[in-house]
Amino acid sequence: MADQAPFELLKTFSGLIHRRPLFITDRLDVDSYHLTFLDKQGQKLNDDSEIPDFLKQLPTILPAINDRQKALLSIPESWRDTILNSQDSSQKLIIDINGDTPPDDIDSSRFSFASHADKSSNDSNSAILLIDLEHHDQQSLTEHLPHWREHHTTLCATNVNNLDDFTLCKSQTLDLLQGQFYTLPSAKDNQKISPSIQILMELLVKLQNPTIEPEDLAASINQDISLSYKLLRLINSAFFGLPREVNSTKQAIVMLGHTKIKTWASLLCLSGVDDKPVELRIVAMTRARMCELLAKYYKGQPEMFFAAGLFSTLDALMDSPLEILIKKLPLAPDLKEALLDHSGAAGSALRDVLNYEKGDWAAIETSPIPVEVLARAYLDAIHWAKELNTQLQD
Questions:
Q1: Does 1 have pLDDT greater than 50?
Q2: Which of 97, 107, 170 is nearest to 128 (CA)?
Q3: CA distance 390 to 17
Q4: pLDDT tens, 39-85?
Q5: How far apart are the C-alpha atoms of 132 and 159, rounded to whole Å?
Q6: How far apart are CA 22 and CA 33, in angstroms?
């Protein structure tokens, strides 16, 4: 891939890089991604931090992990001039100035600025205002919103980490949202499973049956014409790069193996849930890939680790508690324990992945895996998921 060399340069960063989506509130499409650069302990970098080698090329590196036309960057002050003088690219960069005064005479077609609600001065002219919901409740929002709207083009709520916060942001018509809310199930106690979800669960049960024969596996996949088409199209894409074309599901099972086809078919099943943000599909793929990459450090089976990451999003995709869903699937005992208790090797890897995703850096420090390994696996996983999602959208 053309972007592979500069992307590898990004992985030389000595600290942590964290990517979070910014959602458009009214339809939950991803507007852009917020990239935060931190030290190894997950703390904000000092404002006089050394400028890394990759920084001049960052605008051309970003497409490897950001398929949007813009990105919000939280970086130390010492990096700003390098970014503002970096080579031109298709990406528009929004610099988090963290309460400072935006610089004058910048190319507004390439750069804009974001500030924080607690630090923004009355006359700040930053385009985006970041409003941390850990510091602002409904009363505070109601009080300050008219003033904030006078001084900022876009209001973005951060730490929207539960469904009540999401509802609050919608009621206040905030423009953008950032947080973990979309990875949570929204089921009510009396909510019935829709017919489409029921059909999906029945197919997943067949796919995960440990005793299913290759012929029966192929037949189960072929019963869903859309699934068999998507599977063959993906396997024959540049993403897989197979030496020859695969013409049938049965041939795919012979070439790639029984277990891999079950896993890829399950991923395509879950990616077909229509009433969820596309970003949740990307989260499922990212978790699966990062778990798979950690398998060698935990001395486990990559396929099971991949499945642990993939199925960890079942509750959010199907709006039902994970314990109930897992009971309905004929998963191996080790996989069930990894998903429900985060026990065993795969469960430990899944815990690492979830902690990195949430930015729980204190928990990351307790992992037996070096933080440098986790950081590289995370970058590799979000790059991989972006490339795979591109194939699925074509």
A1: no
A2: 97
A3: 22
A4: 999 999 999 999 998 998 998 899 999 988 899 999 999 999 999 98
A5: 6
A6: 6
**Sign of the torsion formed by the C-alpha atoms of 329, 280, 38 and 293:** positive
For 131-166, give the DSSP string.
EETTT--HHHHHHHHHHHHHH-SEEEEE---SHHHH
Same domain, 133 and 241: no
Q: Cβ distance 181 to 163 under 8 Å?
A: yes
In the chain, how many domains are there? 2
Q: pTM (2 decimals)?
A: 0.92
pLDDT tens figures, 218-273: 999 999 999 999 999 999 998 888 999 999 999 999 999 988 899 999 999 888 78
The Cα-based distances of 4 to 60, 271, 286 in angstroms read: 11, 26, 18
Q: Say if residue 199 is in the same domain as residue 318.
A: yes
Do 217 and 176 reside in the same domain of the chain?
A: no
* Cα gap 339→350, rounded to integer Å: 8
Query: Structure tokens of 340?
Result: 């429900």
| Domain extent for 331 | 195-393
* 254 and 280, same domain (yes or no): yes
